[in-house]
Amino acid sequence: MSAPVPIEVDPDTGIWRTDGLPMVYLPRHFLVNNHNAVAAALGVEAYRAILRPATDKSAFDWCSATARTGDLAPEAAFRYYFQRLSQRGWGRFSVDELDIAEGAARFSLQYSIFVLETPATTPAPQCYMFEGFFTGAMRYLLGESGFSTALECVENRCAAGGRHSECCFTLSAAA
């Protein structure tokens, strides 16, 4: 990781900003407990279906805004997004393979907050919230590179319960 994540706090409003974007600082267990409660109430697949477009839009918007404010090329903004997620405590993200022309990628994730905060007996996968993060960032990159396609992302392997050393996600053009 590079330099620490800068946090600017507006003394009048109390709003926190990093990279020019408003942020919320909260304990990791709050996010994970909320995530697990909603998944239990709605069912994992229903919650997954809600999360995908919301997290996709968030990733897309973040990449767009950061590319503008940081004067970054599209692929640099894409990679910076995962660097910042890693620096903000979501886990350690790696872009293992990237094929822009095919709309395909493979990602790995170590130290996922959902793995670290979830009891070992909880069934995998637990990190499906990140599927939309990957599709949104890739959708941004593809659009800026002159490509457009619907994308699918699947968590193929989850480290929850110690079954694997890392989580693994594949992203591809939708069939």
Describe the structure.
The chain is an alpha+beta fold and 175 residues long. It has a single domain, classed as H-NOX domain (Alpha-Beta Complex). The chain has 5 helices and 7 strands. The strands form 2 sheets. The protein has a 4-stranded antiparallel β-sheet. Strands 1-2-3 form a 3-stranded antiparallel β-sheet, with no helix packed on it. The longest helix is centred in the first third of the chain and has 27 residues, at 44-70. The mean pLDDT is 91.
Task: Using brief descriptors, characterize the structure shown.
175 residues; alpha+beta; H-NOX domain; 4-stranded antiparallel β-sheet; 5 helices; 7 strands
Query: Quick one: biggest sheet?
Result: 4 strands, antiparallel
What is the distance, rounded to the nearest whole angstrom, between the alpha carbons of the first and last residues? Answer: 36 Å
Low-confidence stretches: none
Return the CATH class: Alpha Beta
Q: Tell me the count of domains.
A: 1
CATH fold type: H-NOX domain
Rg of Cα set: 16 Å
Strand order of the largest sheet: 4-5-7-6
What's the mean pLDDT score?
91
Structural class: alpha+beta
Beta fraction: 15-25%
- Share in helix: 40-55%
Q: Write the CATH architecture name.
A: Alpha-Beta Complex
Query: Outline, from the CA principal axes?
Result: globular
- H/E element order: EEEHHHEEHHEE
Query: What is the overall number of helices?
Result: 5
Tally of extended strands?
7
